[in-house]
């Protein structure tokens, strides 16, 4: 038996102005996008802003449905839109922000769910880039430089290419 440690380096910022301007702008746009989320069931509004290679910014927010699984997260909505409209442009950075039921910024840092991490991974592999990820917590912003940092031992196309049993 062997054991090994998987290490993740997370950067932490105490306020948004500490970030390079283009990433601070992404956080602001993610917060704005959260306002327009459609969340009659959870009341938990999430906004995502993506930075594309060209400098273009794409935003999205979560859209819920009475048949719960039919809704989708902010991250996947933004990513699928970006990849469908700008298929030749890699996404290079993503910011995720949350807003509480009272409309105030969510001070619990919002992290992408497992399914969204898998979709972010696909975008990294498809375009051969790392996507800088910023998780907004209002007064505490955390960042990793690839989704692989928060999705270790992941499933990707190499498993399919190796074939099944
Ligand atoms: N949600 C997101 O949009 N992104 C996340 O990173 C976490 C969860 C949404 C899904 C659902 O509409 C609501 O938040 C509560 O789970």
Which secondary structure elements does this structure contain, and how are they paired or packed?
Elements: E1 11-13, H1 21-35, E2 45-52, E3 57-61, H2 74-85, E4 91-99, H3 114-127, E5 132-135, E6 141-144, H4 157-162
Helix pairs in contact: 2-3
Can you characterise this structure?
By secondary structure, the protein is an alpha+beta fold. It has one domain: Cytidine Deaminase, domain 2 (3-Layer(aba) Sandwich). Helix content is 28%, strand content 20%. The chain has four helices and six strands; from the N terminus they run E-H-E-E-H-E-H-E-E-H. The protein has helices spanning 21-35, 74-85, 114-127, 157-162, and strands at residues 11-13, 45-52, 57-61, 91-99, 132-135, 141-144. The chain has a six-stranded mixed β-sheet with strand order 1-6-5-4-2-3. Helix 2 (74-85) packs parallel to helix 3 (114-127). The longest helix has 15 residues, at 21-35. It is globular and about 50 Å long. The mean pLDDT is 94. The protein binds tetrahydrodeoxyuridine. Tetrahydrodeoxyuridine binds at residues 39, 42, 44, 46, 62, 64, 71, 73-75, 96, 110, 112-113, 116.
Task: Quickly describe the structure.
The protein has 165 residues and is of the alpha+beta class. It has helices spanning 21-35, 74-85, 114-127, 157-162, and strands at residues 11-13, 45-52, 57-61, 91-99, 132-135, 141-144.
Largest sheet: 6 strands, mixed
CATH superfamily: Cytidine Deaminase, domain 2
Overall mean pLDDT: 94
Terminal residue distance: 24 Å
Continuous helix count? 4
Number of domains: 1
Small molecules (ligands, ions, cofactors) in the structure:
tetrahydrodeoxyuridine
Structural class: alpha+beta
Order of helices and strands: EHEEHEHEEH
- Say what the CATH topology is: Cytidine Deaminase, domain 2
The low-confidence runs, each spanning 5 or more residues with pLDDT under 50, are none
Shape: globular
According to CATH, what is the class?
Answer: Alpha Beta
**How many beta-strand elements?**
6
- Indicate the percent of residues in helices: 25-40%
- What amount of the residues lies in strands? 15-25%
CATH architecture: 3-Layer(aba) Sandwich
Roughly how many Å is the radius of gyration? 16 Å
């Amino acid at each position: 038996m062997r054991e090994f440690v998987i290490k993740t380096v997370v950067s932490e910022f105490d306020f948004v102005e500490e970030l390079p301007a283009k990433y601070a702008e992404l956080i602001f746009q993610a917060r704005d996008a959260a306002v327009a989320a459609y969340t009659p069931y959870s009341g938990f509004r999430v906004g995502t802003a993506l930075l594309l290679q060209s400098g273009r910014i794409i935003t999205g927010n979560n859209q819920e449905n009475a048949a719960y699984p039919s809704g989708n997260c902010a991250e996947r909505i933004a990513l699928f839109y970006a990849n469908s409209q700008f298929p030749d442009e890699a996404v290079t950075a993503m910011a995720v922000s949350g807003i509480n039921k009272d409309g105030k910024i969510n001070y619990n840092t919002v992290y992408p769910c497992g399914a969204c991490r898998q979709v972010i991974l696909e975008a990294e592999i498809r375009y051969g880039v790392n996507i800088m990820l910023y998780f907004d917590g209002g007064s505490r912003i955390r960042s990793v430089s690839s989704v692989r940092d928060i999705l270790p031992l992941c499933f990707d196309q190499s498993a399919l290419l190796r074939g099944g049993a």
